[in-house]
Amino acid sequence: MNSSTICSLFLGLILISQSPFAANATLLGLGGGGGPLVSLICAASSNKVECNKVLSSPQITQAKNYKQLSKAITEIAMKKAVEGQAFLKGLAQKSKSEGLNICADSCYSSVVRDFKSCLDFIDGDPDTLSYDCKVAVDEPTRCDSAMAANHIVNPAVTALNRQILFLCELIFKTIDKLPNH
């Protein structure tokens, strides 16, 4: 290699290492080997592979601290809950099932409301934040119970409930790291 090629490679490495994305990736553990934040959250999660998948989204990589990370995960969870509710309403309308109606109208309305409240209190009272984020976990379980009581087996609904429960778990893990918790 000639000296200009070596100089160009060296300059490129310096620019890459100083980029904001690289700095955030290192802070959050998204760069090579995983750093402390993502490593701690995912190491303590029930599904390390899914945790790393969720925490590698572009929305997460922009977070600079636990508060931003909590907000980003809650926004992802809220989006999934809204999509899930629409999916459940479609199923309920087609099947006319009481169990699916309970899931769509009652359970997932509560999940969406709880996630919205959680987002509203990210900058506010830590006790209210913790409560609002943690009660969301009750509703997918209640949906599972309504499905079982009505003898409905639907793997897609079960998968949705598991996904919302897992996102709740990640939210808990990040809000517990916030100051005053």
From TrEMBL:
List the SUPFAM superfamilies: Plant invertase/pectin methylesterase inhibitor
Q: Which residues form the signal peptide?
A: 1-25
The keyword Signal appears for this protein:
yes
Keywords from the named record: Signal
PANTHER family in the record:
PLANT INVERTASE/PECTIN METHYLESTERASE INHIBITOR SUPERFAMILY PROTEIN, PLANT INVERTASE_PECTIN METHYLESTERASE INHIBITOR PROTEIN
Q: What is the name attached to this protein's record?
A: Plant invertase/pectin methylesterase inhibitor protein
Gene assigned in the entry: 11422432
